[in-house]
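Escalation from tier 1.

The customer reports that the assembly of two entities below gives different C-alpha cells on two consecutive runs. Tier 1 could not reproduce it. I'm attaching the input and our single run for tier 2 to review.
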Amino acid sequence: MLTPLEIEAIRLSLEISGWAVLGGLPIAILLAWILARGRFVGRNLLDGIVHLPLVLPPVVVGYLLLVLLGRNGVIGAWLHDALGITLAFTFQGAAVASAVMALPLMVRAVRLSIESVDRGLEAAAATLGASRLSVFLTVTLPLSAPGLLAGAVLGFARSLGEFGATITFVSSIPGQTRTLPIAIYGLTQVPGGEAAAARLCAISIVLALAALLASEILARRLGRRLAGPHFA
Amino acid sequence: MFGRSGAGKSSIIAAIAGLVKPDSGRVILDGHPLFDSAHGMNLPPWRRRVGVVFQDARLFPHMSVRTNLLYGLRRHRSGPGGAKTLTLDTVVEPLGIGALLERRPATLSGGEKQRVAIGRAVLANPRLLMMDEPLASLDGERKAELLPLLERLSRTFAIPIVYVSHAVDEVLRLADRLVLIDAGKTIAAGTVEEVANRPDFAQIAARDGGPETFSVISATIGGHDEAAFQTRLDFAGGSLTVPRIAGGPGERVRLRIAASEVMLALAPPTGLSVRNAIAARVVALDDVRGLIDVTLDAGVPLRARITRAARAELQLAPGMSIYALIKSAALTAH
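Tier 1 run:
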C-alpha cells in the first residue's frame, strides 16, 4: 500500500518533529518564563531574537545554522571536535532546524499560558516556603499545562511542514533528512513524479488532521483534570 | 489592624511577607530583621517564615486539599530547636477539615476554603501568621461559623497573628491589640480599649458602613441569673446587666455600647424598663452634625449621643454628675 520511500519519509518526518518538540519545548518553557516573569534590561531584545525565525525567510535561518553549526562553523567545529557531533546534513541537524523554526510558536503559546496564571497563587506558594524555581515547577508550570500542550502541538505541526531551513542546512539525504515536504519537492522536480508527490501530499493532510485530533482529545482530558469536580 | 478598604492594610501585609519591596524602612520579626533598606537587606518571602491567609484563600486549584495542606509542610524548616513536630493531624481536627482531604478546592465552600488555607499556612510552621480579611468574602452564617475558630486559633497553634479587618465587631471579638490605619499611615496603636475608644476610630469605622459612634468597655462575667436569663458584667465603673451570654464567671468579655443607646438622666430613674444606670461625670460635649456626642467618665470612657434640645433641658456641662442609662438588650458582648 505504502511504498518504502513513503514509509521512510513519514518515519523521518514524525521522528524529526518529535525530537524537535522534545528538545525545543524545555528551551521554549525556559524562555517563556523569563519573558513572562523576568524584569531585566534586554528583555525586548531577547523577545526579538526568539521571534526572528518567525519573520526571517526560512532559507536565511538555514544559512545561519550552516554558518554557526556547520563543520567549520563557530559552534559546529567545537561540537565536532569536542563531542563528535555533526549537525550539518544529518538527521540531528534536521531536528535542530525544525526546533529553531518552531521555537517562536512554542514560546508564544507557553508564555501566554504562564501569563494567565494567577500571580496571587505564586505569591501564596512563596509565603509557604517555595523558592522561585519551586514555585515555577509546582504551581506555574502545572497550571500552564494547556499552553504547554498547545505549544507542543503547534511546534510539532510547524516541524512537520518545515522545508526552507531544513533543505538549506541539511539538504535532502535519503534516510537522514528527506522528510515529507522535502520528498514532495524532490518528486516535483523529476519528470513523472507528480503522482507520487500527490500521494505524499494526501499523507501529509492525513497526518496533520490526526495530530489536530489527538491534541483536541488531550486538551479535553487536561481541562477535565485541571477543573475536575472531584478527587485528585 | 483596622482601617477602611484602601487604607494600606494589605500593602503592610505584603511588605511583612516580602511580596512587595518597600522603598525604605525596616521589617523586624521577633528581633530578626526581614527587611532593612538602610543595610540593603531583603529576605525573600520563602525564607521569612511568615504565613499569610489571603481573603480569597488562594488554594492551588490543581491539587487536592491534602496536597495543598502538605505544600508548606514539605518545605518548612522547623524552628530553633526543631521541637515543633507538625503533621497533617495538627490542623485536621482543630479546623474540622478531615472530610475534605481528597476534595479539589473548586468543590469547597468559601468557609471550607478559608479553613484549608489556615491549615496550609499553619503547617508551613510560620513565626507569624497574617490574615487578610479572611471573613470578608463570606456570608453571615459562614462568618459566625468561622469566628469561634479564629478566636481559638492563636492559642491552638501558639502563633502570633496579625489580623486585618475593617469590621468593628470582628476586631473587638478577636483582637488583643489594635493598630488603626488610615490613608497609609498608622493613626494609633495600643490595646483594643485604648484605640477603639478614640473618636477617630468610630469615625473611620462609620465611613465604611460600620456602626455609629460607640464606646468599648472590657468587663468580666460576674454571674448568671438563669431565671431572669441575664448575665451580670463587672467593669471598672460598676456593673451592667445584659441578656444571658455564654462563658463562665471571671471570663473576660468586651462590650460595644452604641452612643445612641445611652440615655442620660439627672437622677437615678424609677419606673423605667432600663436595667442599667451608671453614675458618671460629663467630660466633654461635641456637636456632630446637629447631634451632641457626650463623652462621659464612668470609671471607663463612655459615649452618649443626644439632641441639642436634650442638652439644653438637662443643662449639661463638663464636670456635671449624671446617670447613664443603658438598655440591656442594646448591648453587644463579645
